Amino acid sequence: MKTPLIIATLIATFAPAAAFATDDCPSVPRDQWLSVAAITAKAEKLGYKVRKVEVDDGCLEAYATDKAGKRVEIYFHPGTGNVVKVKADD
């Protein structure tokens, strides 16, 4: 009876860690990447003011400020333009 509970606990504990271990932006051929202008437009449509866009670990990373004026880093999938993550800029 305890074995299924232990297995469920282990899965719940380590499954999120596996998700963090994978790349957020899989390899996409450069000719299929969105332009910096397109990424900037997407970020601005979401309410951010973009300072610059760079490539970071296969993602397009926009350095921006949010509506409250706080600096953020927004990671976009280079092929789809979907937001992968947003974090406070240190």
UniProtKB/TrEMBL annotation:
<keyword id="KW-0732">Signal</keyword>
<feature type="domain" description="PepSY">
    <location>
        <begin position="6"/>
        <end position="86"/>
    </location>
</feature>
<protein>
    <recommendedName>
        <fullName>PepSY domain-containing protein</fullName>
    </recommendedName>
</protein>
<feature type="signal peptide">
    <location>
        <begin position="1"/>
        <end position="21"/>
    </location>
</feature>
<dbReference type="Pfam" id="PF13670">
    <property type="entry name" value="PepSY_2"/>
</dbReference>
<dbReference type="InterPro" id="IPR025711">
    <property type="entry name" value="PepSY"/>
</dbReference>
